[in-house]
């Protein structure tokens, strides 16, 4: 969330609640505020002008319990300080206090429903403040822009991050992509991915981590020795598969590692047998197939893939081809009598109008089954989603 996004969030929340609000960081410096409407006291006016409340007011509010409160609380007015009653919503992330949302609780007081709505906005604002606190030498919104440019392969992006001290110049870089398994893309998922990555960045400081959240996946870039994907799995609050790109000797090559990681995560999501993490370098034939269009399937398999009753035939064919055409090994793997195996293979030859004695046909059928797995058109009954 950039500074502009933060201001838009503040303005939108103020409009929904019909009253002004003010956002402070954990030491009560003003970060953002909405337009004024309704009651206003001298303290709000001075806070906006000076970007900070006075020591006397801070002491009064902290004595009211704002630093220790786990949720919204109402603070009393203080006529001697020219302070009206307020509602305070503490902003916390990973049990750490990052800031406060303030509303004047007068003319009229806030309803419980409005207080609850303000509290619902707190996690997103807390993440934004946490992100700001992690950015050293480079403002968070500039870091976001630079990382986006880097992963697009735009010239100059790597130099911008190196000059800002975000990443060392001489270390190799690796990109990992976390792709959620079941959650629908949306603001809730984006916040969950952002929360996981920010928490992980705090633990991986020695790897000079950078991150980016897309609408349907999260990106982690680290320097030095590759980080175990188990770290990313442990940090994510939703189940994910992780794709790992090959390390690049310098930051300018991160875009290539990102493309590999993104494709590896996509393959892992569609081919559960690969497990919950997949390295691009170890994808085998799937590495070659990710760039092929779905329409390149063997024509004889088209109508078989569309009918579930043919699934046993397709499973038999795939196992047979995976085992290099060994009838003995296929019968053992499927626990199928050899006579039944031969019947299934002959039946498939008839339906697909193919000849399994033809090496070219066998190759085309084998690749088509793997490509159909990637597209989701073929899903063997024994395949399960990674845990």
Protein model, in words:
The chain contains 15 helices and 10 strands. It is an alpha+beta fold. It has a 5-stranded antiparallel beta sheet with strand order 2-1-5-4-3, with helices on both faces. A 5-stranded mixed beta sheet has the order 7-8-6-9-10. Helix 4 (112-134) packs across helix 7. The two termini are 31 Å apart. The model has no long low-confidence stretch (mean pLDDT 84).
Protein traits:
387 residues, alpha+beta, five-stranded antiparallel β-sheet, 15 helices
Q: What global shape is seen? A: elongated
What average pLDDT do the residues reach?
84
Number of strands: 10
Strand content: 5-15%
- What class would the helix/strand composition place it in? alpha+beta
Instruction: Give helix % range.
Output: 40-55%
Q: What radius of gyration results from the CA coordinates?
A: 28 Å
- Give the strand order of the largest sheet, numbering strands 1, 2, ... along the chain: 2-1-5-4-3
SSE order, as H and E?
Answer: HEEHHEEEHHHEHEEHEHEHHHHHH
Number of helical regions: 15
Unreliably modeled segments: none
Main sheet summary: 5 strands, antiparallel
Task: Tell me the span between the first and last alpha carbons.
Answer: 31 Å
